[in-house]
Design goal:
Blueprint lengths: L6 H8 L3 H8 L2 E3 L4 E6 L2 E6 L4 E4 L11 H11 L9 E2 L7 H4 L9 H7 L3 H10 L3 E2 L5 E8 L2 E8 L8 E7 L2 H4 L2 H15 L2
Antiparallel strand pairs: 1-2, 2-3, 3-4, 5-9, 6-7, 7-8, 8-9
Helix pairs in contact: 1-3, 3-8
Length: 197
């Protein structure tokens, strides 16, 4: 059982039609174990609604930040059947984002910039190892398909005499149709933590 996730999420998921969930999220349902199997950022996760449990069943990366499991169950519950619009936005473009994403909800992109500094090749190698696809933005940038409906882009700028190196996360504009601001924050923390460690 994952104590920090409210049981109501699991109860809600247990009451859903597995066929409907699988169609919306491109996951699979294990009838024997009553679990959903979902690929998230290159790893497989099993979600057991009746046991209030989520397990990472592959080990290509270190264990994710514990709050990432909240993103996983929320995605299963709330993801919608909509096409990506392929228009990137920042957290400030999200309704209410300029107010929400600051203070305790400031996205910790400093984890990335502090690790890599001006070593942009090291940044590129790390992003490639994490299944990133290069895109033409900033000094270097990579797209990560977290789930089929949730891509993110991580942009990186080198520093100079006036400015320190900087990282930024962008999201497909449709993200607000799937996730609330607090869940987007949970996702962003995992992105920064995974790249910046």
């Amino acid at each position: 059982m994952i104590n920090f996730i409210d049981k109501s999420y699991f109860i809600d998921l247990a009451g859903k039609d597995p066929k409907d969930i699988c169609r919306k999220t491109f996951c699979e349902y294990d009838v024997v174990n009553k679990s959903y199997i979902l690929s998230v950022w290159g790893d497989e996760y099993a979600v057991y609604p009746h046991e209030y449990k989520i397990d990472c069943i592959s080990s290509s990366v270190k264990k994710p930040h514990e709050y990432f499991y909240l993103f996983i169950i929320y995605y299963l519950l709330k993801s919608k059947e909509i096409e990506l619009c392929n228009e990137w936005i920042s957290e400030k473009d999200i309704p209410g984002g300029a107010t929400f994403f600051r203070g305790p909800h400031e996205i910790p992109t400093n984890l990335i910039s502090e690790l890599f500094g001006n070593d942009i090749e090291r940044f590129r190698k790390k992003c490639t190892r994490l299944y990133g696809t290069p895109i033409e933005m900033a000094d270097a940038a990579f797209r990560f398909n977290i789930t089929p409906h949730i891509p993110v882009a991580v942009l990186y700028w080198l520093g100079d005499e006036e400015f320190s190196p900087e990282a930024k996360i962008l999201y497909d504009k449709t993200i607000t149709r799937h996730l609330t601001s607090d869940i987007i924050f949970v996702l962003a923390v995992e992105v920064c933590s995974r790249i910046g460690r």
